[in-house]
Tyrosine recombinase XerC
Amino acid sequence: MERGLSRNTLVSYRRDLARYAEQLSAAGIADLAQVRPADVSGHLASLRDGGLASSSAARAISAVRGLHRFAVRERLVAHDVAADVHPPAPPRRLPKALEVEQVDRLLAAPAADTALGLRDRALLEFLYGTGARISEAVGADIDDLELTGESTAVLRGKGGRTRLVPVGGYARTALESYLVRARPTLAEAGRGTPAVFLNARGGRLSRQSAWTVLHRCALAAGLPVDGPYAVSPHTLRHSYATHLLDGGADVRVVQELLGHASVTTTQVYTLVTVERLREVYATSHPRAR
């Protein structure tokens, strides 16, 4: 509650700390006061040896470090034995962005003559038109949308931060069609949930179901759904940011639109555009090679 963490983050931290507790127990350690720095380092090594991805290992060690900081703050132990054990630095990966033509194919994939098809098109247009995270999209309520005048949406992001983002014309049209022609039909089976995006039973669409929608539409559009370039819900967010920067948007504006706490997080997208410039130069300039 104090840190405004999402339910998914809490579930991950609980799983990470349960794994840590099991390892301490296996080593005969029953109290945090008995833990030594070597025990924390050994846990990190076991995570790596167990094949855990660098990002997952980093999160797990962050949870462990948080536990020991808490123990010191609450005076359960005298010293923070995890203070000098740092999480592994994850490899810097450039976000995967779709070409505009690929986005057009993806957004055109849902059928426009069924209630679920109208919902799916509105969902995809909303994701790409606002840069919303999948959790922000399925968490949006009707009252969060303002589709008259300057169309906007309120998104509730990480850490309890709320931001107001513009809704583009295509997304607005898709949302209006869904809200007028499809949502009332879906809502008949439910209990009056305020969610924008409903499932076939009239309840709030889940993250997993939204992922399934994207997977199905990516297949229909001929886009990859497996392997390193597989289309995921975050792909549309990456594409949103990359296309804004390609169009000349200021990185600070994109930071606000994405809801990043630090501009450093947003700057990774500028690397994508530089790579694109290099590719165009290499294939177009007569003296490039």
User: Anything to note?
Assistant: The chain has two domains: 7-73, 100-282. The domain at 100-282 is CATH 1.10.443.10 (hpI Integrase; Chain A).
